[in-house]
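Entry type: protein chain
Record version: 2
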Amino acid sequence: MANSRLFILFLWVSLKLYSQEDSSWQTKPTLELTGFVDAFYVYDFNKPTGMTRQDFFFNHNRHNDFSVNLALMKLVVKHEKYRANLALQAGAYVTDNYAAEPNALKNIHEANVGLSISKKNKLWIDLGVLPSYLGFESAVSTENYTLTRSLIAENSPYYLSGAKVTYKPNEKWEIAGLVMNGWQRLQRC
């Protein structure tokens, strides 16, 4: 009995959402394509025995080797009622930080879609692989405040997978609630 009530509630909500006439859906979205490459060479005078300098770092950790830390291509779709991001990645960072993920998922840096669920676009729901709101740094070095990486940032998540509801009442405030799959996890734990 409870399941039929839930089904009727979802049916009513979906009919209510799609019955609104809104001309903003007729506007065309903007597309943005960006690329980024972070290459490096490090020589560690402590001369580690292998190619990896420190196992607890996920960025710029190769010894005596020219390497690409992160190569990234990102496609962004923006509309006043919906949005989407798809960023694919490769490099030493991906090899080290995504070691526990299946090979098919390792190259996903960001993959999410969002939908405005309010008339004035103040309330959004986003689903997928999202950039992390935790920590001070990003895997993309140009987004960091300092040139060097910190140990605390290496142990904070660069990405989260799940759902996010965002409410932005004005330009100064943004409130978000998240239901995540885990810490630095793409697949279910």
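Comment: The chain has one domain: 27-183.
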